[in-house]
Design brief:
11 strands, 7 helices, globular, alpha/beta, four-stranded antiparallel beta sheet, Rossmann fold, single chain, 33% strand
Amino acid sequence: MVDHSFADLTLASLYDTINPWGPDDDFYLDLVRTADAVLDVGCGTGRLLARAAEDRHPGRLTGLDPAAAMLVQARRRAPGVEWLLGDLRTRLWNGEFDLVTMKGHAFQVLLCDDELRAALRAVRSALGDGGRFVFETRNPAARAWETWTPDRVREVTDADGRVVRVWHEVEDASAGDRVTFTETFESCGWLRRRVSRSTLRFLAPEALSGFLAEAGLRVVEQYGDWERGPLTATGPEIITVVTPDR
């Protein structure tokens, strides 16, 4: 789950513990391994490109993230990768990449139509001939936010051995395709708990396809899960592979 709270250095160091490597990472890593030049938008702690670098990826690996604290983690783990602070509104490329990724449901932080259109235009510009843009968004029909409740508390251990409790609580799910929620982090070793507030956008497949087509991007594959199963009405994910529409 993407969360702006991880701009905090303490929380950024916990990100990979709270969100361990999983099938989604394997899915994207397979794509990165076959691409010569990769741009990972919203790269976070950089673990995807860092793993590719560990595997001696021979091409260009570029990570982009707006949170400096996350990039501190990325630079520590893979100093040879190109790590850039910013987002798709502040950086401009022209056909330099054959793969652009946007994992960890980062696509859902693009809330406004204009913001989404600008991001997709930037992706379209960054892709070379035959390039692919791959991302995922939660299927709104699966209503994942209904499980984001305070009774579902997770416990993780930080670098100093302290137990940190983490939970979510939805504030508003009535605003069309947007859901606003809080994420709370609490530890007896901290002076205070940390609470962040975020909003995510849940686009239905039809609306998503419309924005992509408007940006000159054509859907070539869509999956409903990380095993490349078919997109279904209530499956958890909308995993999308697009290419420039020539």
